Amino acid sequence: MNIIEQAHEKFSLLDNIPLGAFVLQSDYIVLFWNCCLEEWTKIPRSKILGNSILEYFPHLNQPRYTSRLDQIFQGGPPAIFSSQLHKYVIPIPLSQNKYRIQQTTVTAVSALDGDRFYALFSIEDFTDLTFRVQEYKNLRDQALALAEDRQRAQEAAEAANRIKDEFLAIVSHELRSPLNPILGWAKLLRNRSLNEATTVRALETIERNAVLQAQLIEDLLDISRILRGKLALNLETVDLAFIIEAALETVHLAAKAKSIQINLDLDIKTGQVKGDSSRLQQVVWNLLSNAIKFTPAGGKVEVCLEQINSQIQLRICDTGKGINPDFLPHVFEHFYQADSSTSRSSGGLGLGLAIVRQLVELHGGRVWAQSPGEGQGATFTVCLPVVQQSLEFKIEDQNISDDFYPFCMLHTPLEGIRLLIVDDDADTREFLAFLLEENGAIVTLAASANEALAIIAQSKPDLLLSDLGMPEVDGYALIKKLRAMPANQGGQIPAIALTAYAAETTQKQVLTAGFQLHITKPADPSKLIAVIAALVEG
């Protein structure tokens, strides 16, 4: 009888207990494996008997286990492999894609048989957990997908921050650049050493760069209004052909300076659209300016207007630098430029096309760009729905703002009109006083709201022109105090708010507070004179 048969005969009673039990020889050979373990582990007795247990459970070869086992094999006292010392997990294959997890606590005792020591193991605290491998894989895939989503979100956030930083750098550059010639020529003009021709050139340069800076600020304000959903439209029926011709007048000189030929193909039979004429002109102007800006000298720009079914389509094609295919999907995104490096050849904030898309979509239309590639020109197409002639649209009342003035009043003199100007900035007071006095007005200046109220108490002006942002008492508080006064003390004096605050919310606050008009700085001198005359005479 061999040693395995002897062990089976000796320990056969262990087949009748509800606990797992096995016997090891000092060389880790399995001599006995009871029925309970066969059921639990699905390892047949015929396979494991006579083989090393390390083939099935290699983790038992770790030093923390071998040291305890060696003590047992040398006849040492019984040992309990507690959860802290011997809580281990044994994955045992049951079938394809299915496993059993065993968590055990083992008690080991030595057994003397002649000159050989055995280790008798009793397995207690047995936990049987079953799961499918596919479920585990699903959980793993979900975890990996979540990690990938987080990585993509992080990369998108980093890209957004990079674009924001690049945009802020461009904003700083574009706002500062016009200041250089403005300040430079202004200092030279103060020296009074320039001849007449140079003086004219200096003044033209100052005006051109001031207009450019004002346009940059207006673009930023437009994007802010659009992103906050605060851009209001004054809707009316609009003839796009007229809008195009008006926009062409503003870009004519720029095209002529580069010898760019503009070809028109306007179908006069196209219908009208419902929209804000000034905003639609802004769309056309932006697209035309872009085409001229990126078309080299001697190039061509074509403007085509036609009606296709219920849509009016405007196409502006140029022979300019074209658009890289990689950038084409991003051409209408705000804060995104094809070239944001310091070596870029074209200025601007890169907001014009973003504003175009938003304005077109607000009018119920769509806009898209096409380009065969760099150096091959580009085509921008705008589609807007046609107004059905059988329908009657109610035209919304237009709020008088800084870009709406009665044109017939642009040259109305201010002879004999008494004006009170309130502004804490001395340069602004001095400029306004000079401008309005040159046009016949009688001007009184005040540096604060309290000073203005004191002047009104002595002599009522025909009109109040006040800044909003002033220390101690601002323009809002001034007009509220004024409107609280009786009419014979100046409570009904017409008032205009002239301020650098340009948001729609500001305009509403201004009118609610008691001002008749809100004009944004910098105001065009002729328009300012016109609205003052119109308001006083009205």
Question: What's the gist of this structure?
Answer:
Helices cover 42% and strands 22% of the residues. It has 538 residues and is an alpha/beta fold.
Topology:
Elements: H1 3-11, E1 20-25, E2 30-33, H2 35-41, H3 45-48, H4 63-73, E3 79-81, H5 83-86, E4 88-95, E5 98-113, E6 116-132, H6 133-176, H7 179-190, H8 196-227, E7 236-238, H9 240-257, E8 261-266, E9 273-275, H10 277-293, E10 300-308, E11 311-318, H11 352-362, E12 366-370, E13 378-385, E14 418-422, H12 426-438, E15 442-446, H13 449-458, E16 463-466, H14 475-483, E17 495-499, H15 504-513, E18 517-520, H16 525-537
Question: What does this entry look like structurally?
Answer:
This protein has 16 helices and 18 strands. By secondary structure, the protein is α/β, with parallel strands linked by helices. It folds into 4 domains: 3-132, Beta-Lactamase (2-Layer Sandwich), CATH 3.30.450.20; 138-227, Orthogonal Bundle (Helix Hairpins), CATH 1.10.287; 236-385, Heat Shock Protein 90 (2-Layer Sandwich); 407-537, 3-Layer(aba) Sandwich (Rossmann fold). The strands form 4 sheets. Strands 1, 2, 3, 4, 5 and 6 form a 6-stranded antiparallel β-sheet that branches. Strands 8-10-11-13-12 form a 5-stranded mixed β-sheet, with helices on one face. A 5-stranded parallel β-sheet has the order 15-14-16-17-18, sandwiched between helices. β16, α14 and β17 (495-499) form a beta-alpha-beta unit. The radius of gyration is 43 Å and the shape is elongated. It starts with a helix and ends with a helix.
